[in-house]
Write a structure and sequence with these properties.
Keywords: Coiled coil. The protein has nine helices and ten strands. It has about 260 residues and is an alpha/beta fold. It has two domains: about 35-100; about 115-255, Rossmann fold, CATH 3.40.50. Helix 2 (about 35-75) runs antiparallel to helix 3 (about 75-100) and helix 8 (about 195-200) packs parallel to helix 9 (about 220-230). The protein is elongated, with a radius of gyration of 22 Å.
């Protein structure tokens, strides 16, 4: 498998000790064996998701047409039945998607998790590591739940911005540079937002919450920059949903540090 041009096993920090060794692995600094093993299943789930979405679109169109016909005919009984069928269909499709993406988790639990924590839940150990790793106030880029968790525990937060506004993100990083703040990047979306923030940042320490390359966050160039310009000081587990591999990474600036 490839991660935007990198061999996935190497990108994830897993390399065979020699060509003839299929069972033993040499693990480099930034790695996640569990994520490497999960990638094929995630890819298969994504293919199945596309099938479900295509089927859902066809069935929803049929249900909507039935609803419109009943309404046009003025048949209240048929309209009520068509509406009930529409609602049942929606619940069925959502249930199938939830079961596919969140296996073993009761339907709806992932939504409550996201409301409480965002994409990934912190641990008390991770909060304390952020406090210890950042003597300066932190500039958080990511979900508001992380800002609230840090502030509740007395970790100084200088500013917070989400991932959606490029202009606000640029301004926040500029302000963080001017004030000497530590940058905390939490679960960036796929795309170049995290890379741009990292490139604009002038501090000597960055905190990253998420999965590594091949996972759900960031893009190839973001992880390539981490590999070449930053060194990993510490990695701590978080409390992700089953099937998630989010962690806290504490990194120090170091040109050609060879992270991963």
């Amino acid at each position: 498998a490839k991660c935007d041009g990198w061999d996935l096993k190497k990108t994830l920090g897993i390399e065979a000790e020699d060509e003839g060794d299929q069972g033993r692995w040499k693990v480099t600094v930034l790695h996640d064996r569990d994520l490497a093993r999960a990638v094929p299943a995630r890819q298969a789930a994504n293919r199945e998701l596309q099938v479900i979405k295509k089927e859902a679109e066809q069935r929803r169109e049929q249900a909507l047409r039935a609803l419109v016909r009943a309404a046009e005919a003025g048949d209240s009984t048929a309209s009520a039945m068509a509406l009930s069928n529409w609602q049942t269909l929606h619940a069925e499709i959502q249930g199938r998607i939830d079961a596919l993406l969140y296996p073993g988790i009761p339907s709806g639990v992932h939504k409550a998790y996201a409301v409480a924590f965002g994409p990934a839940a912190w641990t008390e150990e991770a909060i304390e590591e952020i406090r210890a790793a950042s003597p300066a106030p932190v500039c958080i880029v990511g979900p508001v739940q992380w800002r609230q968790a840090l502030e509740l525990r007395g970790v100084p937060v200088a500013r917070h911005v989400g991932w959606r506004s490029a202009k606000a993100l640029d301004a926040a990083v500029d302000s963080a540079n001017a004030a000497g703040e530590t940058l905390l990047l939490v679960c960036p979306p796929h795309g170049d937002e995290a890379l741009k923030a990292l490139q604009a940042y002038r501090g000597d320490k960055v905190l990253y919450v998420g999965e590594i390359c091949g996972g759900m966050y960031g893009d190839f160039e973001f992880f390539r920059t981490l590999k070449l310009q930053w060194s990993l000081e510490k990695r701590l587990p978080l409390a992700p949903l089953p099937g998630g591999f989010e962690k806290l990474f504490v990194l120090a600036r170091g040109e050609n540090a060879g992270v991963g």
